[in-house]
Write a structure and sequence with these properties.
Blueprint lengths: L1 H12 L6 H6 L4 E3 L10 H6 L6 H11 L5 E4 L6 H8 L3 E6 L2 H15 L8 E3 L5 H4 L5 E6 L12 H8 L19 H18 E11 L2 E3 L2 E3 L1 H9 L9 E9 L20 E8 L3
Parallel strand pairs: 1-9, 2-3, 2-5, 3-4, 5-6
Antiparallel strand pairs: 6-10, 7-8, 9-10
Helix pairs in contact: 4-5, 5-6, 9-10
Bound molecules: S-adenosylmethionine.
């Protein structure tokens, strides 16, 4: 009887449904990005968006940081990859997305790929700067997202040219509330970190937030965006400061290499992203 009770209690308080063997694998500080492959039938909707992440990558994080029934938020929901991954793993996914076009595509995607008709409480077509008006404090078990990376989509590079040729969008929107349209880097960082500090209020104590970001170049300057963002979110003088628990490197080994600086200077092919793992203290 006592053993049975202990097993029930452990199930209740443990943070995920993984076996010890599966748990160990997920504690590595790197993982290889597993895209869907251009020909996958499930890639159709992700390809429409200029900067999606694959629901298969986000599924890995959901498996570790949540269990069945957990409430999950993506405050920059794009074409709904987090909601799709949540549905498939029997978590309750919520998203906020500014641009009506991406909200519409998310709805179509979830209906077609998951047979799920999402309501306006779970997918809010709105501005994440109002997050605390949309959700109650301490509501979520996990927050995961990939935000805009400043205005790097303004770049007219080979990737943008290819998207134009394929008839796909090169930026998220023309909306001035779109964080991808802020031209000043410091202002962008301030606005973005305010949203993530609001996420702190929405998370239950002891729970995690994972932010997927990449560093980038602008003109000749290299921006360590992940470090700049971390400085803002882990400031110990703030009552809403997160504790940094780790940084996973998401290796993008399948990306094409370009001879950017050859043969004169070091110009990096940035083929990884960072997953910043932050915890709200108990
Ligand atoms: C990197 S994308 C996220 C993509 C998403 N992870 C996916 O897989 O589809 C960033 C998203 O943030 C949205 N966005 C930008 N500013 C926003 C704001 N103020 N409130 C809500 N969403 C915003 C953009 O429209 C864009 O879809």
């Amino acid at each position: 009887m006592k053993a049975k009770l202990t097993a029930v209690l452990i199930k209740e308080i443990r943070s995920n449904d993984l076996t010890a063997k599966e748990w160990l694998q997920e504690t590595k500080s790197f993982l290889y990005q597993r895209g869907l492959g251009a020909n996958s039938s499930e890639a159709k909707y992700e390809k429409m968006h200029p900067a999606p992440f694959s629901f298969t990558d986000v599924s890995k994080l959901l498996r570790f940081f949540t269990k069945r029934g957990s409430k999950v938020l993506d405050p920059f929901s794009g074409v709904g990859s987090t909601i799709k991954a949540s549905l498939e793993l029997q978590r309750e996914g919520f998203g906020v997305e500014l641009e009506p076009k991406w909200c519409e595509i998310s709805k179509q995607r979830l209906l077609q790929e998951c047979d799920y008709s999402i309501d306006d409480e779970h997918l809010i077509c709105g501005d994440s700067r109002n997050l605390t008006n949309y959700f109650a404090p301490d509501f979520f078990d996990f927050i995961v997202t990939s935000p805009p990376y400043w205005n790097i989509l303004e770049k007219k590079d080979h990737k943008a040219n290819q998207r134009v040729l394929n008839g796909n969008a090169t930026k998220y929107s023309e909306n001035i509330a779109d964080l991808g349209n802020i031209s000043d880097y410091r202002q962008f960082l301030d606005e973005l970190s305010k949203i993530f500090l609001d996420c702190h209020s929405l998370l239950k104590a002891g729970k995690y937030m994972c932010i997927i970001v990449s560093d980038f170049r602008h003109k000749s300057e290299f921006y360590a965006f992940h470090a700049d963002l971390l400085n803002k979110l882990t400031d110990k003088t703030s009552s809403r400061s997160f504790q940094l628990k780790g940084i996973k490197v998401l290796i993008q080994n399948a990306k094409k290499l370009f001879p950017y600086g050859y043969p004169f200077s070091y110009v990096e092919n940035i083929h990884h992203q960072y997953i910043l793992v932050l915890q709200k203290q108990k």
